[in-house]
Design brief:
Layout: H1 3-10, H2 22-26, E1 34-38, H3 44-51, E2 56-61, H4 64-73, E3 78-81, E4 94-100, H5 109-122, E5 123-134, H6 140-153, E6 158-160, E7 166-168, H7 172-178, E8 183-193, E9 199-208
Parallel strand pairs: 1-2, 1-4, 2-3, 4-5
Antiparallel strand pairs: 5-9, 6-7, 8-9
């Protein structure tokens, strides 16, 4: 099963629970800003922004199932299918980008770097990037699956879920390297509840292009 098939398959049932730090985000991004949510899923975070008074909102996701669900659930949102690795917007066209639990769905480091480069392309000079994602854990359950799949994928922290998806928990040094071209305003460690109901280490980052 590939990643798209997995997310299309669970698009009607998964509920995303990791918290969006909307008050911290609002310190750097005005209500009239053009905001792009890359990997928006069914639009949960954009709906939260909409309820907070933001109006210029765009969401893209490669899962047609997620976008269809979002259009039904939040018909006021502009949600679009991302056909390939290109975001499909002009250079320097958005004021802020949200990347919410997306890196975990991209196991390959080169693909993560390519996505960050594409995000930098569409961000205006001085634009804001908000990233929220998962870090490595040290409990027995996670250590076992990190070890089990390390050789197969060549990255410690990548593992397969029983239902077929491949996901990644990240080393903090990798995250710092990945986002090193941005001016860091906030980096906070948090503990999240995952979409499958487990606890996991995580972080949120706010930086400027």
């Amino acid at each position: 099963m590939n990643q798209k098939d997995y997310w299309d398959g669970v698009s009607g049932t998964k509920t995303f629970t990791t918290p969006f730090q909307v008050e911290e985000f609002a310190e750097y991004v005005s209500k009239d800003a053009v905001i792009l949510d890359v990997g928006c899923g069914y639009g949960r975070t954009l709906n939260e922004l909409s309820q907070s008074g933001y109006r210029n909102l765009i969401g893209v996701d490669f899962s047609e199932g997620m976008i269809e669900r979002g259009k039904r659930q939040f018909p006021q949102l502009d949600l679009r299918v991302m056909e390939n690795s290109s975001i499909g917007l002009a250079d320097a066209s958005v004021d802020a980008v949200i990347l919410f639990a997306v890196l975990t769905c991209i196991p390959d480091g080169a693909e993560q770097r390519a996505l960050i480069a594409e995000i930098r392309r569409v961000l205006k000079p001085g634009g804001i990037l908000y990233v929220n994602d998962f870090l490595l854990n040290d409990d027995e359950r996670n250590l076992k699956r990190y070890s089990e799949f390390a050789d197969k994928y060549g990255v410690y922290g990548v593992f397969e879920l029983p239902e077929g998806a491949v996901v990644r928990h990240h080393d903090e040094d990798w995250i710092q390297s990945l986002l090193s071209d941005l001016t860091k305003f906030r980096y906070e460690r948090l503990t999240f509840t995952t979409m499958n109901g487990h606890r996991s280490n995580g972080f949120y980052f706010i930086g400027r292009k």
